[in-house]
């Protein structure tokens, strides 16, 4: 396979200078519809490309989705249903190119979304093991329960593999798979802000402010990841690789969107965020080491370096002030907080295990090997020298 160099070796210093361009901003335009993966997405694509004022086009879709759910062996890994749900959620985020924005609140599509969500939530609740709640519901006991739940387990094997064994092609497949979340990082959890109050709201805003760059657009985590993709020779436009991303990865992203878009699931959303932050710092450290082992420079690794420090701080805030603070205010949400954390570990673990199994069997970890701006996915020829500057201690 041809080894292609990164596009350039611009450093974090270069990117953060006043007046620096926003190359690779990731979310500068709506994503395009990807290829359908079955009868549901084929029918939904026709609907989304049609005028919003033609209700007969959408009238049969809910029944078709119900039939597909009934016939599905596993809703959580059903590519057709997961892609359909992802499209429907994207109407609430950045939108879809050439799709009328009024589809976002069209009752027929909302019914379709609700059907898939109902099946997905039921599948998660049936399959996810939720630990027994702590006897005391003060913030410290809630945090300790979450730290115990998220203690390193098999779901972090992927970062160990990337650190010591991943090939350049596998590393860039990983960057592609993660891009569906990281190019809109923090957005799903921000749905909770108006649904909280007091200590929990303040904690969430503190965490999210760091995620969005603390007032510096070039330090937004979404932007850091977009620059990493560009430097690795990948397309940083959101959704560019949707066709090659598997159902397990879609399910992981859909899970947090489902939690975020339903007020009744705000406890699950905060539990999800707490688990996400608690399982980020050390894996990011290993991934950064693996990328450097493969010769990538700081323009690629900056995103992961940022999270090593930032998430070590965020996990404490998320456990005690965010999740713990919420449960102190609304103790009836404790079970949902634990469910959300356990669901996060489960869906992220399934996605990671799917990719790792493919790699260890000598296959691509994606649905199909993608192409980049300059050809097939590959790694750098040599280490890219660059200067680093530690930016801040929160992110």
UniProtKB/TrEMBL annotation:
Pfam families according to UniProt: Haem_oxygenas_2
Organism: Microcella putealis
Segments of skewed composition (Basic residues): 370-395
Name of this chain's protein: Heme oxygenase-like protein
Location of region: Disordered: 1-37, 363-395
Gene3D superfamilies xref list: Heme oxygenase-like (1.20.910.10)
